[in-house]
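Need a sequence for this fold. Nothing fancy.
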């Protein structure tokens, strides 16, 4: 808010100054006329100031403190009053904590001194944190006093240097951060560690640090020290480099505010271990500079993808190529990329499922694995059609059928259910096939055969939710989803349905990466009058014309759009062809003479 009103704030704090271009000039923070002090009042640096005579500088909060002689806490309160910001939110009753009595102890000169210096801490550091030594029940304890900014003792922690688990704190004392008395009241950056000795280590390395009082898993200190932490706009979380530390750091960052917290990564498990390993002050300070925000998983900088973009333009040698659309040959104008969803539509009876089966065979020929759910047809009947297409024969031999079965063994799986399938169960089985067998293509034929209402109240919402699940699935498992969706009832069958004519919710098409529409010519089986030469000639002309069209109506990836592939159909083999040649294609080669027949 200050930065957004930098010019007005600068005039108020430095009333004798003058504007020069994008800066407000004054003599010093006392407001005298001059040019030594400059405040940026516009642009991305709005609010940044520098007094070149004294060396002071910072943001507008720092300027507010300097001009009005206030502490950070006082300045924040004054700024809030200026902007009309109220902090009188409803708060739970504050818990009353007990102030501990000064513990009976002596300066750390014996076992405690030996323990701490053995961990690389100096006498100056031990003295700064006022660490003491106490004997109790024949055991020696290090005494860690928790002292607030006013110098008041608010808690005490006792730790046995010879028994790691033997530690305790004062009963009913405030669960606060350790080390407040050493933090500069004007500091805007602070580091929070997982243990007292780590905080002492960072202090020794000239890094202002505090420590939580009960490790990475207990965050009661946040509530107690919330207001004290408010003034810091840069909080470095230096928890241990292990799973509990990462989990605790994430929880703390989310509670204190991801916009002002950064995660520190050291060259060892914790700060003190790194010190013992030989790290120096410059190493610690560099680690603090290198700390990175714990950005939300979904928030990524565009430059992180630059290499991936380069590889899309210039694939490295040996990069796997997405399988092409294959009818009777590879059609380079379309490829089935992973993490995409293709919607297949077409008028009822125009052979969309039949054509999709042949396209799936083409994918299998290129090494892809497929799972098909076709709730409208039993597995054996469906496979009978696939065997015809695979062999190019209306009636292949038993041996050839066995050979095709062996070829399909590592390529095709069937979700065996005739009728309506539950989408959640379907995706559960699909996920299993993706993980175990590496399947990358999943077919749902059709939308009306899953438990999603086709009409009635709430049907549109349910259909959109179903598509959202499919989109999430293909991204999560990096696979390709094929969904057959029927069109609305059309006026006639002269043209293939377009994107806007797919029945149901808009999300069916909007959520798709690709949309194909399939159309088949309506041809008579025989001339209307075999004895009429004109009728026979007209019928023969119709037979030589194209039988079908495969039309790409949408492709989200840059490339071919609104492309029509004309096709001819061979009825005995149920195969589509890209030319008038009617001889069948063999997806699975077979010969009794040169191939062993699977038993």
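Here you go.
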């Amino acid at each position: 808010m200050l930065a957004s009103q930098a010019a007005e704030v600068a005039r108020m704090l430095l009333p004798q100054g003058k504007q020069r271009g994008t800066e407000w000039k004054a003599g010093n923070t006392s407001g005298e006329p001059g040019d030594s002090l400059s405040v940026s009042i516009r642009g991305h640096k709005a609010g940044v100031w520098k007094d070149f005579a004294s060396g002071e500088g910072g943001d507008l909060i720092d300027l507010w403190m300097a001009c009005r002689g206030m502490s950070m806490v006082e300045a924040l309160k004054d700024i809030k009053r200026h902007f009309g910001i109220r902090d009188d939110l409803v708060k739970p009753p504050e818990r009353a904590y007990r102030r501990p009595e000064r513990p009976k102890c002596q300066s750390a000169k014996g076992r405690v001194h030996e323990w701490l210096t053995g961990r690389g801490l100096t006498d100056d550091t031990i003295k700064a944190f006022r660490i003491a030594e106490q004997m109790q029940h024949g055991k020696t304890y290090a005494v860690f006093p928790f002292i607030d900014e006013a110098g008041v003792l608010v808690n005490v922690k006792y730790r046995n240097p010879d028994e790691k688990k033997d530690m305790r704190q004062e009963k009913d004392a405030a669960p606060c951060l350790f080390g407040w008395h050493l933090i500069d009241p004007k500091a805007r950056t602070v580091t929070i560690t997982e243990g007292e000795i780590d905080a002492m280590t960072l202090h020794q390395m000239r890094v202002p640090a505090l420590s939580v009082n009960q490790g990475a898993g207990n965050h009661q200190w946040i509530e107690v020290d919330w207001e004290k932490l408010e003034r810091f706009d840069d909080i470095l979380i230096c928890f241990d480099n292990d799973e509990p530390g990462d989990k605790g750091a994430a929880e703390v960052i989310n509670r204190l505010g991801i916009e002002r917290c950064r995660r520190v990564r050291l060259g060892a498990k914790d700060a003190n271990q790194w010190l013992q390993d030989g790290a120096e002050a410059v190493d610690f300070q560099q680690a603090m500079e290198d700390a990175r925000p714990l950005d939300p998983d979904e928030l990524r900088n565009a430059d992180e993808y630059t290499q991936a973009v380069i590889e899309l333009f210039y694939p490295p040698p040996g990069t796997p190529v997405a399988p092409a659309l294959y009818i009777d040959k590879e059609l380079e104008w379309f490829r089935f990329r992973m993490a995409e969803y293709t919607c297949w539509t077409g008028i009822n009876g125009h052979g969309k499922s039949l054509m999709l089966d042949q396209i799936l065979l083409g994918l299998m020929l290129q090494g892809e694995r497929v799972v098909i759910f076709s709730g409208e047809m039993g597995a054996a009947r469906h496979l009978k059609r696939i065997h015809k297409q695979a062999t190019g024969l209306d009636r292949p031999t038993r041996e050839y059928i066995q050979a095709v079965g062996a070829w399909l063994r590592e390529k095709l799986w069937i979700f065996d259910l005739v009728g309506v399938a539950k989408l959640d169960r379907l995706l559960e089985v699909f996920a299993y096939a993706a993980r175990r067998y590496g399947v990358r293509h999943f077919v749902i034929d059709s939308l009306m055969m899953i438990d999603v209402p086709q009409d009635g109240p709430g049907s549109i919402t349910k259909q959109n939710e179903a598509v959202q699940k499919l989109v999430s699935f293909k991204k999560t498992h990096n696979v390709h989803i094929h969904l057959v969706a029927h069109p609305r009832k059309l006026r006639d069958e002269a043209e293939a349905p377009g994107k806007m004519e797919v029945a149901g919710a808009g999300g069916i098409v909007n959520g798709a990466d690709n949309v194909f529409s399939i159309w088949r010519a309506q041809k008579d089986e025989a001339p209307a009058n075999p004895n009429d030469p004109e009728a026979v000639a007209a019928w023969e002309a119709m037979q030589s014309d194209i039988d079908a069209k495969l039309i790409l109506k949408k492709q989200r990836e840059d490339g071919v759009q609104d492309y029509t592939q004309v096709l001819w159909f061979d009825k005995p083999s149920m195969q589509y062809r890209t030319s008038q040649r009617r001889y069948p294609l063999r997806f699975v080669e077979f010969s009794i003479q040169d191939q062993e027949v699977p038993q």
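For context: Confidence is low (pLDDT under 50) at residues 594-599.
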